[in-house]
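Let's see one such:

===
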Amino acid sequence: MSKISKIAFLMAGISLVCMSITRYLLGDWVPFCWLALGMAVFFVVLGLIKDRAFFKEFLTMKTTKEGMSMGVLILLMLAVLSIVNYIGVRHYMTFDFSTGQSNTLAEQSVKLVKGLDTELKVYFFYKKGVEGNEENRRAFRDLIKKYQDINPRIQLSFVEVNEQPDIAKDFGVDKGSGTAFLEYKGRRSLLQKIDEQEFTSSLVKVTREKNKTVYFTVGHGESSLEDVKEGMGLNALKTMLERNRYTVKALPLIQEPKVPADADVVVIAGPIQNFLSHEIDALEAYLKNGGSVFMALESQNSAGLDKLVRKMGIELENNYVFNIVDTVMGQGINQGPAMGSVFSPMNEITKSFGQSEVTLFRHPQALKKVSEPPGMAIDELVRTNPKSMAFKSLNLKEEGPVGSFALVDQVMGQWDSDPKNKPFSAIIAGDVDFMTNQMLYQNLNRDLVLNAVASLAKEESLISISPKEPQATQLILSETKFGVFIFAFLIPLSLLLLGTGITLYTRRRNA
C-alpha cells in the first residue's frame, strides 16, 4: 500500500473521530458533522483509487477469498442469532409449574390487561438508603413482569425521590418507603401494597371511565356510614368502596319513595325499624326495573322486609347459628363468631375462595330456600360446615337442629317472571356485623363484600382476587410404609453405593 493511501485512510479515521466527538459533545447533528463525514468518505475513496491495483490483487488471492467466505458465514450466523433473540424478546411464553399456580395471574387480571388500548404507566417511588427498598423494588418488578408478559403497553419506571423531585411533587410523594402509582389516560391510582389483588383493583380504578354509585338506605336505624370509632359502624366499608372508585350516597326512601336512576347498587345494612309499605314498593319497583340490592338483615329483626325476601323464594329463619367444636370435654358450642366455610364453587363471587378459608359472622341467622320462583335462580353463596347448630335464642338453652346452614344467598332473574321486567340481582345475608368496622378485614369478609358489590354493580373485573400462597407438598407415611422405605430402598441404596465405591477403588489400586 502506498504512503498516500495510508495518509488518506488515516485522515478518514480522524474525520470520523472528530464527527463522533462533536455529535456527542453538542448532543445534536450540526453542519460540521456533515463536513467531517464528507471528508471521511473523500479520503476513503481517494485511498481506494490510488491503490486500486493492490486491492484488486488482494481480493483475488485464495486466502482472501477463504477468509471472506468465513467472514460472511460468521456475519450470517450473527444475523441469525440476532433475529432469533429479537423474536424471543418480542414473542415468548412462560410456564408455571408451582403447585398453587402462584406465578400465574388470575383470569380477571388477564382479561383486564388484554383490554388496555393505550400505554399504562407504572411509577415506583423510592429513596436510596432506605431499608427494605431493594427488596420492595425486586418484588414489584417481578409482579409487573407478569402483567407485561400479557401486554407490552405497561411501562414501569423507578423514580428516586431526591433525584427527580418534580415527578415526586406531581404525585405528592415525599417518602421513600416504596410508594407506587398507576396512570392511565390521565387517571391515577395509588397502590396500597405489592400484590396482584391490589394491582388489579387499582387497574380497574384507572381504566373505569365512570364511577359506579352505591346507595345505602337510611332512616331505619341502619349501621352508620360515618361512624369511624364504633366497631359496629360501616365507615371502613364506605372507605373501601370509595378507594375502589365507587360513589357512596345515602338513600332516604322514607322521604322520597323512589330509587334514583343512577343507583347501581342499593345496600340495606342492618335496619332496626320497619320499612313502610311505600318504601318496600319502591324497592320492588327498582328490582322489576333490573336493579341490584344487597340486604344484610339481623336475626329477629327483618324490618318488614321478610315479605319482599319471601317473594324471592327465601325465608328468614330468625334463629342464631353457632359452630360445634371438639374439646377435651367433648363437643361444645363455639359462642364466638360463626364461620362460613362452604362456598359456591361456580359463582363468580366465591369461586376463588379456598377450601381452608372462612368468612366470619356474629350470631347470623340461617336462610332457608323455600322454592325458586318462576324466572328466578337461587345460589347459596356461603354455608356453615355440617357441624353447626341453630338456636331460637341467644341463651342457648334449647338445642336446635344440627347441620349446614346457608348464611348468604344470591337471587337472580326476572321479577314475577314477567319478560317485560329487566333481570335483577339480589344478595341476602343473615348478618350485618361481618361488614362492620370490627369484622370487615377479618379473614375473607372483605373479599366477600367487595366481590358481592362488584357482582351487583356488574363489574366482574373488580371481583377480589384471593392471594395465592405457595403450597407445600407433604409426604405422609404410615409406620409400615416408612419401614418399607428404610429397609427396601434407603439401606439397599446405601450399601450399593458403598460397594460400588469400594470396587472402583480396589480395581484402580491394583491396576
About this structure: The two ends are 64 Å apart (CA to CA). The first helix runs from residue 3 to 26. The first strand starts at residue 120 and ends at 126. The chain has three domains: 3-90, 107-206, 211-462.
